[in-house]
């Protein structure tokens, strides 16, 4: 390698290529032109100031020698030009300076051309980045086919995510997958012209829709929603903690279902006995000594006089006379459809019993006090046959049916009644009864049935059109480790039961602010005895907020009966008609207007054409 010092600017020496002594920058030794201190070449004559670097000098020496050899070889073919020195003749083979300049310019042009060509080739090569096409209408972003834009960039084919049973993941829109500025930027005309035109409807730009005639004020504050299809699932024996609480052994009841709806923990049975609570929930009637023990004998209530207090039927027995009204008979009078679906009722034919409207002979013993192998139906899980207006009516076999008709009715909205009363058999209702040895019981038995039943209802056309599922138990356990006979909200002295000692007056409590508009009931209204215990109530519907727990609401079966009667447009009955008994608070529900607007938006979203993203070539 050349020594770095070879290329340093020399000090002035006064020789050729140097500078005159005393000059600040020096002068050219050949022509005397002034030179700057760091100037190597004279701009006037081209002479170099100082010696060449060693590597360059040796290269020129070799070239000079090669030139002389070529000149000597050519001397025999051409005469030497006049006046040309020996040294000059040695460089005659070199091209002229203009030719060198032209060659250099040509090489530079060739480099620019090659660079441009290589750039075009690189830009046309296939890339790993996939460009997505979106509609030109930026204000309404279409649905994305894949969960996120990053996944679309990795895979050429769009991915459509399937919703699971328990938690369905919502489809992401382009606005969620891309930054806002990308969504709002319109596409070029050539890109948007290849896509289908955007849908005309934009829910964000549509004015408010007026309610149909007859539904004015459905969304007003303080008014219950007008439910079109109610599905009341009444379990048997199950306390709140064992069913929905933290100590439940069935995660489906305690965790999965509450995420789908609104849970009311402070909901209570009104008396002891599964059948007595079922009858209270359908009619507002209090217990008799026989209904409190699930009626071992199917006898009419005698003498059957009507008390002036809350229209209570007084006497002993189980079956209420034809004059006694219930929620089902009210709906029949109004021309509103209803049905009771009782699990395993259809198994009666194998033992010589009716397939539908199964009941013992009036005045005789009940032949089904406990579930039997191959037939888990029990009469006390079918409360509608304890009302003679239904059990002895011509339509009983049409309205009191088994689960096999429930699955058929759910397939069409026109076949699904306005009110569906659903009673799982004794093995799937809670408590300690087993359908067969080793079968799940208690909360696990309930979960085994509801895992199939609830999703089937939610998938039905009737539920999608203003439906509501209500799940509760008739009573909490009345014996054993989890015994709970607490009462809430209204603790009447039932005329058919022995008078009990008055409940102790609770100590005054500090008022608390609640989100509920119901003020008649609260913590101070709960007493230790006289009721059916804390059972809880779960509401699943578009009218409620999923995953919400409303602890401020206190209620019981009479409260729920009044709520259903108000929603379905009939008058309250029995204890539900008492002025002090309110319906469930309207604050628990979303307004009719909100639900209808959401349903309309969902229908439009489903009707929108979906654009598949495709890679650009």
Structure write-up:
The protein is an alpha/beta fold. The chain folds into 3 domains: about 1-70, no CATH class; about 130-210 and about 215-220 and about 590-615, no CATH class; about 230-490 and about 515-590, Alkaline Phosphatase, subunit A, CATH 3.40.720.10. Helix content is about 25%, strand content about 10%. It contains 18 helices and 14 strands. The strands form 4 sheets. Strands 9-7-10-1-11-12-2-13 form an 8-stranded mixed sheet, with helices on both faces. α10 (about 275-285) packs parallel to α17. The longest helix is centred in the first third of the chain and has 28 residues, at about 95-125. It is rod-shaped and about 150 Å long. Residues about 1-5, about 10-25, about 80-90, about 120-220 and about 505-520 have low confidence and may be disordered.
List the defining traits of the structure above.
single chain; 617 residues; alpha/beta; Alkaline Phosphatase, subunit A; 3 domains; eight-stranded mixed β-sheet; two-stranded parallel ribbon; 18 helices; 14 strands; rod-shaped
- How many distinct helices? 18
Q: State the fourth-level CATH superfamily of the largest domain.
A: Alkaline Phosphatase, subunit A
Helix content: 25-40%
Give the oligomer, counting copies of the same chain as homo and different chains as hetero: single chain
What is the makeup of the main sheet? 8 strands, mixed
